[in-house]
């Protein structure tokens, strides 16, 4: 039996070129095609010329078939090209009839397929028709507009991903017809060809533009478009640049927007752009009744997985979204945080039996200043591995929080203190300490301060909440933003005048720099004279620089102290803590600073302490908040950590 030979791909490409010229020659004489293009913001006189070459497939069953047969193409070639199909009676008929045709090109610029837009208006006729998969065309690998606009030396500022070919042409015309002064960030638009966005299309687009190019999603604001936005977010995780979206007005698409007026279209395209995750958050919230408490919590749980994904890649963006959620849902920032990072320990006992006092730890019943540990916010030092003790009497406007991640063996210690003794400042310290403590083991010291800043600012912008502010210091037992299991250098981040000291037994030195006018003056000139107002803060948890110090030196003690002890000479602090266990050290600090002394003393594990160190290794103090932070390392989708107690209500926070 003779095997039928496969059609030559070059013959199929040539057939498409001939078909394109056939369609193109007919568009300017078809009034309905011209009217359709005009309603889509497209000028036919230019759209039918290169590089687009739009056309019109005439009414009738066999116009194209007869034309191509007459130029030497066989029926097998026309079938293989997808230009004709077999009717119910067995005859070959044209695939595209009474449609505006949009030629689809491969990377070499050859026409390999068509999208046809119906002009008949019949209810049972699909609005769009696409060439089926052939030997020269695959929908999932092709984007309309890519070959015509990208490649070579073209370097667009941003690429817009739209739904249909008419949107692509309308945006191309807008880019060419509006001046640079009016349209400052013109888009190059591309569209999937009759299919939902695919990973192959994303990869092809990434290959066609320089790394760092922004991608903007602008799908139609209908049910199908919202579903496409959700899917595109999953596919665009690896995009090497910003990923934004445009929330189009209801009932419009980009082409219709441009047809209504170029000036108004430019305004919407520039002003409605936002991060894609922000648009998705709002889409998910819109599905629920936010005027009812159950609806708000359902909305929170729908948005939380997306927020956790954002946090794994951009903690500052996640902090802004958390504040947006808390305000939009009228929920406590801690409630939002626990929904995003839920506890994984299902065996958590909210009322564990009290552990007997351990005299080896220096925490004895008769000692007033050293507070027993093991309760909520203060894990057992034996579990943590690093011995620590604290003193925070009621007279101090301060709050402490210690968080341990048993999965990675890392810990975070936080001391926050109100800038005054007012109830609002105490509330700010309490909220900042807990938010930063819970976040620090997940995202690092600096990002924890940033998240606490967002939470505190969101809390104090709510109606009926008094004003408040606090200083904060966060210490983590790992380097930077990356909570990797194993022994890592400590990192301290701070905003305000809460201070950290480090000791090796051979020397004692500050790990933080003053965020005060006096501190700024002394960093510029160590001999600067004291002047009135030196103590004014230049940064707090609510704003200003966030200092960061990566502690390369292996320390034997780290001390966090509040304002009462900041006024004490460092040598006196050193004598109070040197060669003492943490509990004994905090007793001495309490005596030294008085009734309002707040202090945390940490003794790192022996494998992270050493007496061989020099002060020069403590450089890079007080890195400004404007400095570029380290790129956050990917974190697991679900973070393992100790179960958290229930988040306090707003009434409890402001009490």
Please bin the fraction of helical residues.
Answer: 25-40%
CATH domain class of the largest domain? Alpha Beta
Q: Please state the structural category.
A: alpha+beta
Overall mean pLDDT score?
81
> How many helical elements?
23
Relevant CATH superfamily of the largest domain: PPM-type phosphatase domain
Query: How many structural domains are formed by the residues?
Result: 4
At CATH level 2, the architecture of the largest domain is: 4-Layer Sandwich
Low-confidence stretches: 344-375, 520-526, 530-534, 608-655
User: How much strand content do the residues show?
Assistant: 15-25%
As laid out across the biggest beta sheet, the strand order is 7-9-8-10-11-12
What overall form do the CA principal axes indicate? elongated
| Major sheet | 6 strands, mixed
Count of distinct strands = 22
Distance from N terminus to C terminus (CA atoms, Å) equals 91 Å
Rounded radius of gyration (Å): 33 Å
If you consult CATH, what is the topology of the largest domain? Phosphatase 2c, domain 1
Write the layout of secondary structure elements.
Layout (H helix, E strand, L loop, with lengths): L8 H16 L6 H9 L4 H4 L7 E3 L5 H8 L4 H7 L2 E3 L5 E3 L4 E7 L5 E8 L9 E3 L12 E2 L1 H4 L8 E4 L3 H13 L10 E5 L6 H10 L5 E4 L5 H13 L7 E4 L7 H6 L2 H10 L1 E3 H10 L7 H21 L1 H15 L3 H8 L40 H4 L2 E5 L6 E8 L4 E9 L4 H21 L1 H16 L9 E7 L13 E6 L3 E5 L4 E3 L6 H8 L22 E5 L5 E5 L1 H4 L3 H8 L4 H12 L5 E5 L46 H5 L1
Parallel strand pairs: 8-9, 8-10, 10-11
Antiparallel strand pairs: 1-4, 2-3, 4-5, 5-6, 7-9, 11-12, 13-22, 14-15, 15-16, 16-17, 17-20, 18-19, 18-21, 21-22
């Amino acid at each position: 039996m003779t095997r039928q030979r496969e059609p030559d791909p070059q013959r199929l490409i040539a057939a498409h070129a001939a078909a394109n010229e056939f369609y193109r020659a007919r568009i300017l004489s078809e009034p309905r095609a011209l009217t359709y293009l005009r309603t889509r913001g497209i000028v036919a006189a230019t759209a039918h010329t290169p590089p687009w070459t739009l056309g019109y497939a005439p009414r009738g069953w066999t116009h194209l078939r007869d034309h191509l047969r007459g130029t030497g193409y066989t029926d097998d070639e026309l079938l293989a090209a997808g230009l004709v199909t077999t009717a119910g009676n067995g005859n070959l008929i044209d695939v595209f009839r009474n449609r505006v045709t949009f030629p689809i090109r491969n990377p070499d610029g050859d026409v390999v397929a068509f999208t046809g837009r119906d002009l008949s208006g019949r209810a049972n006729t699909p609005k769009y028709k696409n060439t089926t998969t052939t030997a020269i065309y695959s929908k999932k690998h092709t984007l309309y507009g890519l070959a015509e606009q990208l490649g070579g030396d073209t370097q667009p500022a941003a690429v817009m991903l739209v739904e249909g070919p008419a949107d692509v042409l309308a945006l191309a015309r807008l880019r060419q017809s509006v001046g640079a002064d009016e349209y400052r960030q013109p888009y190059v638009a591309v569209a999937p060809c009759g299919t939902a966005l695919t990973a192959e299309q994303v990869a092809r687009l990434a290959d066609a533009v320089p790394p760092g190019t922004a991608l903007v999603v602008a799908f139609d604001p209908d049910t199908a478009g919202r579903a496409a936005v959700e899917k595109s977010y999953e596919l665009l995780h690896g995009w090497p640049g910003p990923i934004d979206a445009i929330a189009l007005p209801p009932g419009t698409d980009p082409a219709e927007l441009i047809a209504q007026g170029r000036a108004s279209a430019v305004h919407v395209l520039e002003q409605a752009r936002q991060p894609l995750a922000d648009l998705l958050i709002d889409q998910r919230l819109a599905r629920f009744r936010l005027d009812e408490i159950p609806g708000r919590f359902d909305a929170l749980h729908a948005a939380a997985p997306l927020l956790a994904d954002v946090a794994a890649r951009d903690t500052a963006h996640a902090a802004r979204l958390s504040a947006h959620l808390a305000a939009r849902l009228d929920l406590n920032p801690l409630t939002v945080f626990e929904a995003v990072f839920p506890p994984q320990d299902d065996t958590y006992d909210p009322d564990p039996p009290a552990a007997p006092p351990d005299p080896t730890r220096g925490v004895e019943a008769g000692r007033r200043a050293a507070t027993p540990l093991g309760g909520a916010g203060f894990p057992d030092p034996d579990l943590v591995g690093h011995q620590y003790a604290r003193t925070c009497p009621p007279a101090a406007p301060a709050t402490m929080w210690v968080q341990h991640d048993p999965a990675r063996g890392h810990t975070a210690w936080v001391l926050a203190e109100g800038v005054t003794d007012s109830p609002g400042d105490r509330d700010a310290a309490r909220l900042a300490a807990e938010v930063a403590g819970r976040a620090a083991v997940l995202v690092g010291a600096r990002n924890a301060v940033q998240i606490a800043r967002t939470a505190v600012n969101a809390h104090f912008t709510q109606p009926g909440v008094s004003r408040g502010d606090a200083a904060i210091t966060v210490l983590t037992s790992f380097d930077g933003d990356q909570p990797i299991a194993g022994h890592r250098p400590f990192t301290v981040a701070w905003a305000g005048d809460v201070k950290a000291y480090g000791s090796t037994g051979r020397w004692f030195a500050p790990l933080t720099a003053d965020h005060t006018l006096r501190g700024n003056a002394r960093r510029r000139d160590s001999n600067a004279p004291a002047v009135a107002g030196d103590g004014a803060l230049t940064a707090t948890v609510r704003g200003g620089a966030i200092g960061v110090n990566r502690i390369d030196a292996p320390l034997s003690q780290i001390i966090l102290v509040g304002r009462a002890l900041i006024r004490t000479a460092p040598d006196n602090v050193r004598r109070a803590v040197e060669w003492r266990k943490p509990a004994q050290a905090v007793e001495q600090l309490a005596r030294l600073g008085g009734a309002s002394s707040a202090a945390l003393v940490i003794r790192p594990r022996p494998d992270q302490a050493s007496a061989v160190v020099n002060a020069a290794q403590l450089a890079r103090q007080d890195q400004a908040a404007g400095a570029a932070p380290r790129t956050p390392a990917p974190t697991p989708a679900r973070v393992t950590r100790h179960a958290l107690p229930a988040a306090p209500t707003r009434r409890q926070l402001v009490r």
